[in-house]
Amino acid sequence: MQIHETIAGVRAALQSAGRIVFVPTMGNLHDGHIALMRQARAHGDCVVASIFVNRLQFRPGEDFDKYPRTFAADCERLIAAGVDHLFAPSETELYPEPQRYVVEPPAEHATILEGEFRPGHFRGVATVVMKLFAIVRPQAALFGKKDFQQFMVLSAMVREFALPIEVIPGATVRAADGLALSSRNGYLSAAERAEAPRLHRVLNQVVTAIRAGSRDFAALEAAGLAELRAHGWEPDYLAVRRKFDLQSPSAHDSGLVVLAAARLGSTRLIDNLEV
Ligand code: PAF
């Protein structure tokens, strides 16, 4: 695997690379990321990963400073997964001056759900991904569906800017007890780790009820939130939404997804399940 720290270096290396498939990450790679790398291999000639903890998508007081940085271990995992190139720029390489030009996703995508609780988050994500796309110039890019709203925002960005990039979803990878893999799981204490799979179980209960014919989405959301609160969680939201635009469904809509974000101790976890 070739490692590139500069924009000029990665551009030069990818000049005659064939069909480039790109997997952007913030590092601290787990099996979910590695599944994306392996999936990427099937979609092109040259698999490019990036590792960059993007300050723009964190709000003051969030975990930017303590976000786990495990570069050496990440490189080993990427090599084992057969990744061809890694782009790992410093902050001054990617943002040599304040990033004043930004991608501003529309409010109906960016101020709901995650965006309500993390204002500006999707502006930061869309801006860095647009910049990474301009540097790597991939023909395809993979994003995990654990960040369902991020996948929706980035797919819409690519579509509306007519970028010649195929956006490919990666299935959420879970631990045996159902907890979705996430770099933030490492923040959990042993007791919190034992409690954490409840988030998936609660989402599963809502999905099961919808599949069984329930259309009282508000009651299902309230029951899920109550169960989380009863076990010490502080939920930000638990919401049944339409998959294609993440707006609230009517009783007749199909193609639904149930999304949740909740804090367990000081760790904020998100997850979702498609109906
Ligand atoms: O999902 C992530 O890890 C990040 O949001 C991304 C897409 C790499 C942008 O920083």
Would you give an account of this structure?
The chain is globular, with a radius of gyration of 19 Å. The chain is 37% helix and 20% strand. The mean pLDDT is 98. Helix 8 links the parallel strand 5 and strand 6. The protein has 11 helices and 9 strands. The chain folds into 2 domains: 169 residues, HUPs (Rossmann fold, 3-Layer(aba) Sandwich); 92 residues, Pantoate--beta-alanine Ligase, Chain: A,domain 2, CATH 3.30.1300.10. A 6-stranded parallel beta sheet has the order 1-4-3-2-5-6, with helices on both faces. It has a 3-stranded antiparallel beta sheet with strand order 7-8-9, with helices on one face. It has 275 residues and is of the alpha/beta class. Helix 7 packs across helix 8 and helix 10 runs antiparallel to helix 11. The structure holds pantoate. Pantoate binds next to strand 2 and helix 7.
Q: What is the name of the CATH architecture of the largest domain?
A: 3-Layer(aba) Sandwich
Based on DSSP secondary structure assignment, what is the total number of beta strands? 9
Look up the CATH topology of the largest domain.
Rossmann fold
Q: The biggest beta sheet, please?
A: 6 strands, parallel
Are there runs of 5+ residues with pLDDT below 50, and where? none
Q: How many domain units?
A: 2
Roughly how many Å is the radius of gyration?
19 Å
Global shape: globular
Could you say which small molecules are bound to this protein? pantoate
What is the average of the pLDDT values? Answer: 98
Q: Give, in order, the helices and strands.
A: EHEHEHEHHHHEHEHHHEEE
Strand content: 15-25%
Structural class: alpha/beta
Helix content: 25-40%
Distance between the termini: 39 Å
CATH homologous superfamily name of the largest domain? HUPs
The largest sheet has its strands arranged as 1-4-3-2-5-6
